[in-house]
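Hi X.,

You mentioned you wanted examples for the new student's onboarding notes, showing what a folding record looks like when two proteins sit in one file. Here is a clean example. The first protein comes first, with its sequence line followed by its structure tokens.
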Amino acid sequence: FRLGHAKSGENPELWMLMYKLVALANAPIHAHFIFDGEDRPPIKRNEHVRSAPHWLTQRLQELLQIFGFTWATVRPLFSMCCGNMLTVIAVLTEDSDTLLFGAEKVLRL
């Protein structure tokens, strides 16, 4: 929540994502985005999670394409089993599970 949130216009969440993408686009990195695909587990950390994609997912993917970022949708087991086949320098996430799967650096933007 931020001050003036109600006056931010239509879909303030999309505006916030766009500003984050502008910052990433100006950073000296190659950002690749991973989205949960189908077959995501119904329970995570002993809590039920929704099986439908988040309402912002499609809009974020459209913004990523506009900004020229790459993205992929993967099955959850792929990220756990095959993640060590990729060269990853850092992970930008709010999910601390990435530390368990070998991420050495976690970034927050």
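Then the second protein repeats the pattern, sequence line and then tokens:
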Amino acid sequence: MDDLNFTGNSKIMFEEVCNATPWLFRHFTRNGLVKGLKEEGCGQVTEETMYKVCKQVTPEKHLALTMEILDKHKSSSS
């Protein structure tokens, strides 16, 4: 994850999505997000990238909650 550079509120979005996952499954969420971000080929993680990757890697039944978390932390400039 050291090769990812978070901009705007993308870091807090990442952390809050991970923290919303039950502790037992949190590493799956974190690993899935990191893998998705790396597959995007972006070293620069923007808020837009977080939305895109979360939509790709989040199971359908959890997508609405994930989008709520991202919306809560979206900066006004995005």
